[in-house]
Amino acid sequence: MNIGDAARASGVSAKMIRYYEQIGLIPPAARTASGYRNYSDNDIHILRFVRRARDLGFSVAGISELLGLWRNRSRQSADVKRIVQAHIAELRQKIEDLQQMADTLQVLADCCAGDNRPNCPILADLETVNGKAPKT
Amino acid sequence: MNIGDAARASGVSAKMIRYYEQIGLIPPAARTASGYRNYSDNDIHILRFVRRARDLGFSVAGISELLGLWRNRSRQSADVKRIVQAHIAELRQKIEDLQQMADTLQVLADCCAGDNRPNCPILADLETVNGKAPKT
DNA sequence: CTTGACCTTCCAGCGTTGGGAAGCCCTACC
DNA sequence: GGTAGGGCTTCCCAACGCTGGAAGGTCAAG
């Protein structure tokens, strides 16, 4: 299987497959006599694992940890769970931050006439620090 | 006012101030005879605007647009509102994506015993494509 | 043999921030 | 006046996770 076929089979682009190999996330692929990368079914399996983990928002470092546990038959599911729960916590934190931004902006947008006049409470807010009047 | 003072007064690090100047987000600062950047109260005002906009998640490109409107006294508040609402939509989209990830992971984590045995539904899921069984 | 699609490597960039090196300037203190 | 220390200057590098392109080799079909 060429890298293009592996990309189509796994959902990971050829560029990214090479990148993942380069940074050591996945093992170096076998090569044909002419230097083409050659992928086995097991390699595709690994690539799919990586793809799925990325879709779930894991960083490359996180995927590396998960791959290690996946390969390790004497792993403890508690280790996997710990990684996943830490990641969930990060996601929830990001969600909270973004939600806070969106809420603030929504309030400002609701206060803005949105017409052809220059007066705008949004810009007025942006002049301030943390949404409060500046000391000056 | 030196760049350090400006940084403390605006909440934007000196490093970032230089960077914003370099990429043209803010105008080049005045200089003293010896080459030090010199900031006026108005410059601080601009920096605070930038800081607040970043806190609300705007990209540098977005801030550039907002700054343009801020400076333009004949602006129309509708233009500001449009930019802000587009940004709110982006934020909500990101929130939704992250929420989807977190929900999926939470379900998996809840199914995982988290003990010293290797069996783990999380890893089992990661082997699949989009959470469904692979074609193979 | 030619064409076109594929593969290879390497280099550079995106956006935002932090870190550090080498060297100049300013203030304070002796 | 000399010196120590902090602050300033510019420049380069690193991070994250890719993405694009250039230059060139390989393979299969016509």
Automatic annotation (TrEMBL), chains A, B:
<dbReference type="Pfam" id="PF09278">
    <property type="entry name" value="MerR-DNA-bind"/>
</dbReference>
<dbReference type="InterPro" id="IPR047057">
    <property type="entry name" value="MerR_fam"/>
</dbReference>
<dbReference type="InterPro" id="IPR009061">
    <property type="entry name" value="DNA-bd_dom_put_sf"/>
</dbReference>
<keyword id="KW-0805">Transcription regulation</keyword>
<dbReference type="InterPro" id="IPR015358">
    <property type="entry name" value="Tscrpt_reg_MerR_DNA-bd"/>
</dbReference>
<dbReference type="InterPro" id="IPR000551">
    <property type="entry name" value="MerR-type_HTH_dom"/>
</dbReference>
<feature type="coiled-coil region">
    <location>
        <begin position="81"/>
        <end position="108"/>
    </location>
</feature>
<dbReference type="Pfam" id="PF00376">
    <property type="entry name" value="MerR"/>
</dbReference>
<protein>
    <submittedName>
        <fullName>Cu(I)-responsive transcriptional regulator</fullName>
    </submittedName>
</protein>
<feature type="domain" description="HTH merR-type">
    <location>
        <begin position="1"/>
        <end position="69"/>
    </location>
</feature>
<dbReference type="InterPro" id="IPR011789">
    <property type="entry name" value="CueR"/>
</dbReference>
<keyword id="KW-0804">Transcription</keyword>
<keyword id="KW-0175">Coiled coil</keyword>
<keyword id="KW-0963">Cytoplasm</keyword>
<keyword id="KW-0238">DNA-binding</keyword>
